[in-house]
Specification:
With 615 residues, the chain is α+β, with helices and mostly antiparallel strands. The protein folds into four domains: 2-220, 2-Layer Sandwich (Heat Shock Protein 90); 228-358, Ribosomal Protein S5, domain 2 (2-Layer Sandwich), CATH 3.30.230; 392-482, Rossmann fold; 494-614, Four Helix Bundle (Hemerythrin (Met), subunit A), CATH 1.20.120. Helices cover 38% and strands 21% of the residues. It contains 21 helices and 22 strands. A hairpin with a 4-residue loop joins strand 2 (61-66) and strand 3. Bound molecules: adenosine-5'-diphosphate. Adenosine-5'-diphosphate binds next to helix 2 and helix 3.
Length: 615
């Protein structure tokens, strides 16, 4: 037996590893299984090149748990290690300034492990003793056993192993007993090794017999060695993509679309991105995309790698070129990563445009689900807006869809005001604003439906992007004045206006933080007698104050509404003649309030009683 010291300048690196890398303990399994995969792949390569002439045999990697002995064993049938190789690759991990570095990155296990190539040593995060028993593929090689208890001392001796490959035996530390649980290891294997390219067996498949589960002869293979993204898109059907999606997200609805990424220049990247079906914004979840490096799971927090708005997508990205074992801030400044990000944006956009062009009907059917992604993208990324503006859609209150260009063509003639501004009319709620929408439509206007939260921001965006245009909600004014086309006014002479105002003064219920200003107009006998409107500007300010800090000023102000009285209407004429104490005025006021959802509580009850009496 030979003894020696591991070549580190730090007195004892293992306690350091253990202490500092606490949060990421579980990655030891990923690191060790990855090494086993590498060793297996190397052997396959040697065999294919004729450098290895022996039998490959069964290459399955086996993970075994022995709870009684307190060990986890990872066995591969790869190239194995000679004593010299163990000395070179395992013992000589000399580096300088280790303490400083460890101190600096103590919360970032990935960086430390990546920096030092400490993959193998991560075993010491969970083990008090580690053994390597290995027989190299090389002709005449002798089996060796290396053992180390976490101090810089190790032993190396001959071993009695007669089949090629390596067993890594971890004697699990007393404070890491959870890793001796079947479920825990199965969970970790499923998380990190699910798509590794060599079969990994974790014990045997079990079957139910009489009153308990017993092992069968069949290996319990935990991975899919050929995940879909590694295959050629032309060989795959829609059903294949849907099936893979179910494999990834068993609880989700069918996806809307998917994009198969496949690039080999200027970087390597493959993957499949899915547009999930989202029922409401609560379903919106970031961190659903999984990042892989050569099929090894790395992380599901992909911010900085894919553009912000695409973090809402689902799927997998696999790239050996993303520097994985480094910190997040480094990632974000990495030029490769930036290229990857803009490449993905472009791919996603091309795909959407492709569907729009080849199958507009399908695109429209999915738009309501899809719009959240596209709108969010346009709002957060200017270059995406430039691409998406050709296929992003607007939907009107009749559920018809238009591109921006088509919509402009549709409304340009009839909805341009006297100053040459195109006025886009919209409704936030086609039911609540029904009568206003109808009035606008009767006037030959088109009304857009902007009924989700993000639409408020979209309106702001489009007003910035569209030339000489603005958006106005249908109830922001009486229909005749929504789009002011000439200077004629429907205002009454001052004296008459005063009469009308006197008639309505103090008749409005006192509502908290709501103020009404009465205005008299001549809107023709057919026009509604009373309408309540709120100016677009005022409403937007109030809306913004609700969601934005620093706008408390607007939040504190009362909501002001304009009550437009139509002096031409027969009922108003009648009320003006009979004077202030007629029943028509309160009834008209209540009806107008009712129409705007503002009649509540006692006022509503009084209104109902009064109406019944009138019948
Ligand atoms: P890395 O894998 O990043 O090189 P590791 O510390 O994980 O660093 O491993 C060091 C070296 O030890 C590997 O490069 C490989 O040569 C050798 N090695 C580790 N595990 C195995 C194994 N299961 N079979 C053969 N060689 C291995």
């Amino acid at each position: 037996m030979q003894k020696g010291n591991i070549g580190v300048t730090t007195e004892n690196i293992f306690p350091v590893i253990k202490k500092f890398l606490y949060s990421d303990h579980e990655i030891f399994l990923r690191e060790l299984v990855s090494n086993a995969i590498d060793a297996t792949q190397k052997l396959k390569t040697y065999a294919s090149k004729g450098d290895y002439k022996g039998e490959l045999g069964d290459l399955t990697i086996r993970v075994k748990l022995d709870k009684e002995a307190g060990t986890i064993t990872i066995s591969d049938r790869g190239i194995g290690l000679t004593a010299e190789e163990i000395d070179k690759y395992i013992n000589q991990i000399a580096f300088s300034g280790a303490n400083d570095f460890l101190e600096k990155y103590k919360d970032d296990a990935q960086t430390i492990i990546g920096h030092f190539g400490l993959g193998f040593y991560s075993a010491f995060m969970v083990a008090k003793q580690v053994e390597i028993v290995s027989l190299s593929y090389q002709e005449g090689a002798k089996a060796v056993k290396w053992s180390c208890d976490g101090s810089p001392e190790f032993t190396i001796e001959d071993a009695g192993k007669d089949n090629r490959g390596t067993d890594i035996i971890l004697h699990i530390d007393d404070d890491c007993k959870e890793y001796l649980e079947q479920n825990e290891i199965e969970k970790l294997l499923k998380k990190y090794c699910r798509f590794l390219p060599v079969a990994i067996a974790f014990g045997k498949k079990k079957k139910w017999e009489k009153d308990k589960y017993i092992d069968t002869d069949e290996d319990n293979i935990i991975n899919n060695v050929e995940p879909l993204w590694t295959k050629k898109p032309q060989d795959l059907t829609d059903e294949d993509y849907k099936k893979f999606y179910r494999e990834l997200y068993p609880m989700s609805d069918e996806p809307l679309f998917w994009i198969h990424l496949n690039v080999d220049y200027p970087f390597n990247l493959t993957g499949i991105l899915y547009f999930p079906k989202i029922k409401n914004t609560l379903d919106l979840q970031k961190n659903k995309i999984q990042l892989y490096c050569n099929q090894v799971y790395v992380t599901d927090s992909v911010e900085g790698i894919v553009p912000e708005f695409l973090t809402l997508l689902h799927g997998v990205i696999d790239s050996p070129d993303i520097p994985l074992n480094v910190s997040r801030s480094y990632l974000q400044s990495d030029s490769n990563v930036k290229k990857i990000s803009s490449y993905i944006t472009k791919k996603v956009s091309d795909r959407l445009q492709g569907i729009f062009k080849s199958n507009r009907k399908e695109f429209e059917e999915k738009w309501d689900n899809l719009k959240i992604f596209i709108n969010y993208g346009m709002l957060t990324q200017d270059d995406f807006y430039d691409k998406a503006k050709t296929y992003a859609l607007l939907k009107d209150t009749d559920n018809k869809y238009y591109t921006f260009e088509e919509y402009l063509t549709l409304i340009k003639d009839n909805q341009t005001d006297k100053d040459g501004n195109v006025v886009y009319l919209y409704s936030n709620n086609a039911d609540a604003e029904y009568s206003y929408v109808e009035a606008a439509k009767n006037k030959g206007y088109n009304v857009l439906l902007m009924d989700v939260q993000l639409d408020v921001a979209v309106i702001g965006l489009l007003e910035r992007k569209f030339e000489k245009s603005h958006f106005t909600r249908v109830d922001s004014d009486v229909v005749d004045r929504l789009i002011v086309k000439d200077d004629t006014t429907n205002k009454l002479p001052e004296e008459e206006e005063k009469k009308v105002k006197d008639l309505f003064a103090d008749k409005f219920p006192k509502l908290d933080k709501i103020e009404f200003t009465v205005e008299a107009q001549s809107l023709g006998e057919q026009g509604a007698p009373l309408q309540i409107t709120q100016s677009e500007y005022m409403r937007r300010m109030k809306d913004m104050a609700r969601i934005q800090a620093g706008m408390a000023f607007y939040g504190e102000m009362p909501d002001t509404y304009t009550v437009v009285v139509n002096a031409d209407h027969p009922l108003i004429k009648q009320a003006l003649e009979t004077g202030a104490d007629n029943k028509v005025v309160p009834q008209l006021i209540d009806l107008a309030l009712l129409q705007n959802g503002m009649l509540k509580g006692e006022s509503l009850s009084n209104f109902i009683k009064r109406s019944i009496e009138m019948i």
